[in-house]
Amino acid sequence: MTLVEVMVAAALLAVLIGVAVPSLQGILDARQTGAAKQLALTYRYLRDEAALRNVTFRVVYFLDQARYTVEVGDPETLVFTTPEARAEFEEQIEDDLKRYTQREIDEGEAGDVTDKLGRFAGLSDPALEGTVELPHGVAFNWVWTPQYDEPVEPSDEPPDLDELEENPGQVVYSYIFADGTAEQTLVRIADVDDEDDGYTLEVEPLSGRVTLHDEVLDYEDLLEWLPEEGPELPR
């Protein structure tokens, strides 16, 4: 190849790169936008369906696996205030079950206990996918609800793919109630390499209104209206 041919080839390559990079960035942005809008539509659908069906829904986020699923439960389901309270409840159920033999459990004599285990089940709904995986290059940076003191982020060391059934990694729950209200929730969906490039989904408490923001929201800013101390009650 002559020097002129090399220069022409280099110029053509530079032009192709200049066209390809913006196109690739546009594809990544479209993936983020699509994933965020799909999650927002899911919450809006669940808010309406919860009131119509008289059930409680919960969105289960598997942060390390960049996916989420929807489960349905009893309308009177109680939400734990902290992950520790949920773990304590589950340990108590296991202790209660130890009082029964396997035969008694199979015959339904431990129904009062086993019913508590099945508070939520996987949802089969033609309007919803069983499990929704985020597109390649898109991830959950964090999820926050009042159950958690701070936003929950993916694990520094994700679990082994062969052990996901026993150890799914970081899991976060967000609830939508039978009266049409919802648990206050923030979900950050962004580029895996740039957490500032993405969307923050906000689910407002009580109203269940869903809003997408193209900037990072701080959960503490949403709680500024709360007084530091409660009112002093007359004795």
Overview of the structural elements:
There is one protein chain. This protein is of the alpha+beta class and 235 residues long. It folds into two domains: 178 residues, minor pseudopilin epsh domain (minor pseudopilin epsh fold), CATH 3.55.40.10; 40 residues. 35% of the residues lie in helices and 23% in strands. Strands 1, 2, 3, 4 and 6 form a five-stranded antiparallel sheet that branches. It has a four-stranded antiparallel sheet with strand order 5-7-8-9, covered by helices on one side. A hairpin with a 2-residue loop joins strand 7 and strand 8. The radius of gyration is 23 Å and the shape is elongated. It starts with a helix and ends in a 13-residue tail after the last helix. About 4% of the residues have low confidence.
- CATH architecture level-2 label of the largest domain: 3-Layer(bab) Sandwich
Name the CATH superfamily classification of the largest domain. Answer: minor pseudopilin epsh domain
CATH class of the largest domain: Alpha Beta
Number of helices: 5
Helix and strand layout, with pairings?
Blueprint: H1 3-53, E1 56-62, E2 67-73, H2 83-97, H3 102-106, H4 111-117, E3 120-122, E4 131-133, E5 138-144, E6 171-176, E7 185-191, E8 194-203, E9 210-213, H5 219-222
Antiparallel strand pairs: 1-2, 1-6, 2-3, 2-4, 5-7, 7-8, 8-9
Helix pairs in contact: 2-4
